[in-house]
Amino acid sequence: MSGHSKWSTIKHKKGAADAKRGKIFTKIIREITIAARIGGGDINANPRLRMAVDNAKSNSMPKDNIERAIKKGSGALEGESYEEVTYEGYGPGGVAILVDVLTDNKNRTLPEIRHAFSRHNGNLGANGCVAWMFEKKGIIEINKTLVSEDKLMELAIDAGADDIETNDDIFEVIMAPQSMDVVGKAIKDAKIEVISSKLAMVPKSTVSVGEKDAGTLLKLIETLEDHDDVQNVYANFDISDDILSRIGE
Predict the structure, then answer these.
(1) Mean pLDDT, rounded, of the chain
(2) Domains and CATH numbers, the chain
(3) Which of 38, 43, 100, 140 is most open to solvent, judged by the fewest CB atoms within 10 Å of its CB?
(4) Under the phi-then-psi rule, with left for phi > 0, alpha for psi from -120 to 50, and beta for the rest, what region is 98?
(5) What is the pTM of this model?
(6) pLDDT at 98
(7) CB–CB of 151/217 below 8 Å?
């Protein structure tokens, strides 16, 4: 299981996503705003904005909030100006970590991200130091109760998906970014409800992390994700279920 899927499973078990709903809204609004700024406010002509709006709807964000964020991004309303930055570094156990940030003040954000790494036995590196260990993929999440794995596999692969991973009670359909529209349409046409569609940096291989480093690594990732400016954290770790149970995750 990839670091992305493993961390999703851990957060699901801890209930972290539900506990931080307000923070999730803030991150989604920032993504909608910058997507509209870069590609325009028409969701039919802007795939990134369409994904962000779909994500907002799946998290039950009010329609007014969505429309306001689009207007701010497209310039119809005054709003903050965000800059996209990706930081790279290593966590405990030599785990590679990518941190996607949307910030209105890079001079504030960079020292805070560096401090999070150093406080949890990691270190921030130069651009390009770990990015080569990941590849961009499209991921569509579907509740396992809605469809059998065999049916979803046949449908998704025929439409151009690469693979399906099982993550607790969710199927993750994985594909090249350019295949997302076609695969998504095939799933929608089959009347299968989608939890979320997103782009993610998926590790090409994973690093096995022992008990000595596992707890500190998970605290680092959680600290990074909890930062207001951080949109996504990707890591190439694998921690066994046995170790997770012993460290209390």
Answers:
(1) 89
(2) 3-74 (1.10.10.200), 84-132+206-246 (3.30.70.980), 133-203 (3.30.70.980)
(3) 38
(4) beta
(5) 0.85
(6) 97
(7) no
